[in-house]
Structures are given as C-alpha cells and as structure tokens.
Amino acid sequence: MRKLILTFLLFPNLLLGQVIVDDQVDESLITVWSTENPSGYEGVYRFGWSEWESEFYLAVDGNIISAQVKDHDWVESEDENLRGWQAQYRNYHNVRIIGNKFFSDETNGEFVRYVRNGEKINGLKLDTPPNVSESGYEIGLFQTGDKLKFFDGKYRQTKFEILSDETLKSYLTEQLKIMRNEIFARYGHAFIKGGEMAEYFGRQRWYYSLDRDATPFLTEIEKQNIAHIRAVEANKKSP
Question: 141: which strand partners?
Fold first, then answer.
C-alpha cells in the first residue's frame, strides 16, 4: 500500500489519464492525422516518461500489421547480471487500421495531431495506453526520422518488412544464419553456451543475454522473416 501511495504522489498522471508525456491533454488542440495508407503510420511511438516510458512499435507490410510494446520490469535474480530493470515485450493481436482508426484485441485508438508547446506533432491516441491508467487515454508521440535507429544489429529491416526470397537469395548462407538469429538476439535470447551464435553475438557490443527464450516475443512479421530465411538457407544447402 505504501508503494502504491508513493507511486501516485510521484506520478499522478498515471491514474488521471488523458495525458501526453507528463502533461494533461487539451482536447481542443487535437485534430486528425491522416495518411494515404496504413504504412504512413509505421514507426516508433513513445508513451509515458522516465521509468514509466514505453516504446510502441508499429510495422506494416501489406495486410500484415504488427504492434508491439517495449517497456521495463524490475527483475529479482540471484544472478547479479540479470537483476534489475529488464526489457519486456507485449504483442497486440488482430491489429487493424481503418482510416485513421487503430483497432486491436487489447485496445483501440486513433492517429492524431496535437499542438504541444506551440509545435504540431503526430501521435497515436490509445484508449488503454501501455502504461495503463485507470481512466482516460494517452497520446504516444510519433518519433520522426529513421525508425531503424531504435534497433541494433546489421539486419534491422527484419523488424518492419518481410524480406522477399529474391532479396534473401542475394545473401550468403552465413549471413542468412546471422540475420535469422539476430531477430532473437535483439530480445536478449540465450543461445547455447559455447555455440557459434553465442560466440558471435557475445562479440557484439549491443547484445546482452537475458537468459530467456525470445520466441514468445516475436511479431508476425518477424516470424515470417524467420520462416523465409530458413527456407532460403535450406535451398542453398541442398545439392
């Protein structure tokens, strides 16, 4: 109870709702954000602030739309390397975009423009935001610029697009193997100790094993990329 009261005192907007970052929303400053097709909304959105900040990833490839939230939870562990704030991921299901409206099993919303500090910004207004409030919505800020900069590795495009077989065939077998496993590595997947992938990613400055299986975190776009890569790998290995 003491922790709950302290949280409310420090972060009152978590419960008040209708927020953008740590400000209350002025609804008279909200207008529609409209694009020609759903891919125009693809990218990274920021919800919340400080320890309560979440990144919302929206990827669109044709009729496949993946929506995923990355936030952090405190993890207790006897292993000092695993104890502390760890990245956690949640996928939304049955995601659809119709016009400027966002729909999923977890929450609905709409893409909007908002005037904040005199500047017009784009955002995603979710009825139930990642940093769940008891009432009201939150507007997540659309991050302009290169969306791939939020991710690590050589083959970051696998987060947002399903690579064609023709594209994949242009890579060497060893490159395909790294590409496929890099999708898992970004989630802190634990590879077999002493194995080739454990050694390869262990040399990458951005990789940190969280001693977990990343399979439950994979988005539909990532799953399809993994399947396509495996198929092309198999064809390259066959006589």
Answer: 46, 123
pTM over 0.85, yes/no: yes
| d(C-alpha 80, C-alpha 73), whole Å | 15
Matching residue, tokens 């590879």? 191
Query: How far apart (Å, rounded) are the C-alpha atoms in residues 206 and 12?
Result: 34
Residue type, 82: L
Q: For tokens 């929303």, name the residue.
A: 25
Averaged over successive runs of 10 residues, the pLDDT of the chain (239 residues) comes to 36 53 86 96 91 90 97 68 77 98 97 92 94 76 95 97 96 97 97 96 94 95 98 86
Q: Alpha-carbon distance 183 to 46, whole Å? A: 22
**Nearest residue to 57 (alpha-carbon basis) of 224, 212, 219, 227:** 219
Q: What is the C-alpha to C-alpha distance for residues 117 and 24, in angstroms, rounded to an integer?
A: 12
CB 231 within 8 A of CB 223: no
Decide if 206 contacts 153 (C-beta within 8 A).
yes
DSSP 25-41: --GGGEEE---SSGGGG
Quick count: other Cβ atoms within 10 Å of Cβ 231? 12
Extract the tokens encoding 209.
Answer: 């094993």
Query: The tokens 């634990």 sit on which residue?
Result: 190
